[in-house]
Amino acid sequence: MDIKICGLSTPETVNAALDGGASHIGFIFFTKSPRNVSAETAGALRQAARGRAQAVVVTVNADDDALDDIVSAVEPDVLQLHGSETPERVSAVKARYGLPVMKALSISTADDLVRAQSFAGIADRLLFDAKPPKGAELPGGNGITFDWSLLATLDGSLPYMLSGGLNASNVGDALARVHPSGLDISSGVESAPGIKDVALIKAFFAAIRSAQQRAA
Ligand SMILES: O=C(O)c1ccccc1NCC(=O)[C@H](O)[C@H](O)COP(=O)(O)O
């Protein structure tokens, strides 16, 4: 199963993610986020990780000019669109950069999953995150779970990463209930907003391994 550690900003925590077995490392491009990084920082971190994990850049309703700059500086493997991008915008981004697009969607009701179907065959993968609280500044990275049982309505045709409020304590429960093609975590491996913690990253991977052994 793919595992994405998102919101990385230092070599130490990127190494912890890679050593733990992360398939994806995520870099946030959203100035209001405590995890926001410069293109230079993300570019250097992704170069160091090249060949070991896929580099994902996370943007929110970014226009072509902003994406051009980020893509040329970072050379990502995947673009994660975490705003209110439409299926048409996802198609246009895929065509412009020739890169896989993971579309993040906020989930709080079954209707949100009906909306997800409009990205079928367009986004390469979805990332189901919790709906941010009213008035929240951030569309993601809020450390909030959603009702995972809603995912039971999916027919299996949409590959998705499960995201939102995961941590070492609840990831086993999540894996017992749903079967995503990937997991994504950010604040659950932080000691403070934006500060990734090597011990928490290790604990997260250990919890996943335990859950997988229980299921085997
Ligand atoms: O993490 C952020 O600060 C962020 C800001 C703006 C857009 C997206 C953001 N995060 C995207 C992610 O993929 C997070 O990993 C995801 O929302 C889950 O976060 P968490 O609930 O903290 O594990």
From TrEMBL:
Q: Which UniProt keywords apply?
A: Amino-acid biosynthesis, Aromatic amino acid biosynthesis, Isomerase, Tryptophan biosynthesis
Record flagged with keyword NADP: no
CDD domains referenced in this protein's UniProt entry, alphabetically: PRAI
**Mind telling me which InterPro entries this protein's record contains?**
Aldolase_TIM, PRAI_dom, RibuloseP-bd_barrel, TrpF_fam
Q: What is its EC number?
A: 5.3.1.24
Query: Which HAMAP family does the record match to this protein?
Result: PRAI
Protein name, UniProt field? N-(5'-phosphoribosyl)anthranilate isomerase
| Organism of this sequence | Tianweitania populi
